[in-house]
Design a protein that fits this description.
The chain is α/β, with parallel strands linked by helices and 338 residues long. The chain contains eleven helices and 15 strands. Strands 3, 4, 5, 6, 7, 14 and 15 form a seven-stranded mixed β-sheet that branches. A hairpin with a 7-residue loop joins strand 1 and strand 2.
């Protein structure tokens, strides 16, 4: 079966190509994609060649297809799949194409395609009442929940989240779900407003307010945990200044540049620092239940639902004006079957 798909042929170039997906094997499921979720930070680094030093050897990493999250409707089942039905709503990681030269490095798992064929083990069913645009951003929530778990956020702790893109918003929600009180901050007013409405107990507009003052007002000795999602390698020192003695720092962003640490200052404060990577797919059923029950807010954070044919414009927005969007999904409703 042929389908449209987003392809990065080389760094800084986006195309929508016709690709071919295989027929489903015995343990596979064929899915008609309704929405695929763009991970704006990670996919920006992959597009520019800065993720994992993709730009060192182009031929090793390109052509590739970005994305690691999509949601849609089951169209066909392999002979060994007995716990799903045609018509079920699901979310999944991505697909593979019948193109031997195509690469799948790191976050480039080919979720941005009109049809997906995936192993049953990589698929989670969601209730029909769940907005599939929100479901297509499920790994944004999974990444953030993994970071909160790894950093061992506890009830009644004060958690500071820096950066309120989707990972920051989801980190704030995950910390609150763990019972913590959350102060969150960003320089973009829209993101601060949405965090105040859906993600944090207190949202600080860093363009006009002091985060440090807000933290000291509630915790004179410093926050228990700081979660940085900015991807700015120079943020570590600021995080260190915000935590209490023996507090915790989660470097939750993706940092293409090296992180420098002043050992002596860090040594005296005795922090625990975590470097979360990826997500905990073993909790996807719990995440799907939370979506259905309204215990997680993703849909209100979606600012852009972009037709897949306009993918090049979508990534141009990601590269040049990230402050203009928050949740971004590609709409595949007009992809059709070929």
């Amino acid at each position: 079966m042929k389908t449209h798909a987003v392809v990065f042929p080389e760094p800084k170039r986006v195309e929508v190509r016709e690709m071919e997906v295989p027929d489903p094997g015995p343990d596979d499921v064929a899915i008609r994609t309704v929405y695929s979720g763009i991970s704006q930070g990670t996919e920006r680094w992959a597009l520019t060649g800065r993720y994992g030093h993709f730009d060192v050897d182009f031929s090793t990493y390109y052509p590739c297809s970005p994305g690691y999250q999509a949601a849609g409707v089951v169209e066909a089942l392999g002979s060994e799949v007995t716990d799903l039905e045609v018509g079920d709503h699901v979310f999944t990681l991505g697909t593979r194409f019948l193109a031997p030269e195509h690469k799948y490095p790191g976050p480039c798992q080919a979720s941005h395609a009109g049809h997906l064929v995936a192993s049953r083990s990589n698929i989670t069913k969601v209730r029909a009442t769940v907005d599939l645009a929100a479901a297509s951003l499920y790994h944004m929530a999974g990444v953030s929940r993994h970071g909160v778990r790894l950093t061992k956020v506890q009830p009644s702790e004060l958690v500071v989240v820096i950066g309120l893109g989707m990972i920051g918003q989801m980190s704030a929600q995950a910390a609150r779900r763990a019972g913590a009180r959350v102060i969150a901050t960003d320089l973009v007013p829209l993101r601060v407003q949405l965090a105040a409405a859906h993600s944090a107990d207190r949202a600080v507009d860093a363009s006009s307010e002091s985060l440090e003052a807000a933290v000291l007002e509630e915790a004179p000795d410093g926050a228990d945990v700081v979660i940085d999602t900015t991807g700015n390698s120079r943020m570590f020192e600021r995080c260190l200044g915000l935590i209490r003695n023996e507090g915790r720092i989660a470097m939750q962003g993706y940092y293409p540049d090296p992180i420098s640490i002043d050992f002596h200052r860090t040594h005296l404060k005795r922090p625990t620092v975590t470097f979360p990577c990826g997500w905990d797919d073993e909790f996807n059923d719990e995440l799907a239940d939370d979506m259905a029950a309204g215990r997680i807010a993703i849909e209100p954070l979606i600012t852009h639902r972009i037709p897949f044919r306009e993918a090049t414009a979508a990534y141009e927005l990601v590269l040049t004006h990230p402050e203009r969007s928050l949740g971004m999904v590609l709409d595949w409703s007009e992809a059709g079957r070929q």
